[in-house]
Write a structure and sequence with these properties.
Organism: Actinokineospora iranica
Order of helices and strands: EHEEHEH
Number of domains: 1
Pfam family, one: AsnC_trans_reg
CATH class: Alpha Beta
Distance between the termini: 36 Å
Protein name: AsnC family protein
Oligomer: single chain
Radius of gyration: 17 Å
CATH superfamily: Lrp/AsnC effector binding domain/regulation of amino acid metabolism (RAM) domain
Helix content: 25-40%
Strand content: 25-35%
Shape: globular
Length: about 90
């Protein structure tokens, strides 16, 4: 599975509608509205890179209110749970 994080600039008056429209697109796992340098952050999960090529410029960028996107492809996922599980290998709980 390929995960991409898409940073989205949107017209201020259409952020809620754009966020919902993006969230409704197949392949989009989550959409967050946020403060800072971007208006929305979408997490996209697809099986093949070609799907990213169709999904981001072909669907997300065409949502009314979306002004610009910046896509970052994830190489590896890290989380506290994953780290804790690695240290539990070989430990039997009583």
């Amino acid at each position: 599975m390929i995960t991409a994080i898409v940073l989205i600039h949107a017209a201020t008056d259409s952020i809620p509608e754009a966020a919902q429209a993006i969230a409704d697109i197949d392949g989009v796992a989550e959409v967050y509205s946020c403060a800072g340098g971007v208006d929305l952050v979408a997490v996209v999960r697809v099986a093949e890179h070609e799907e990213l090529a169709r999904l981001i410029p072909g669907r997300i960028s065409k949502v009314p209110g979306v002004l610009d996107t910046d896509t970052h492809i994830a190489f590896r996922s890290y989380s506290r749970r994953d780290t804790d599980a690695a240290f539990d290998i070989g430990v039997d709980e009583a």
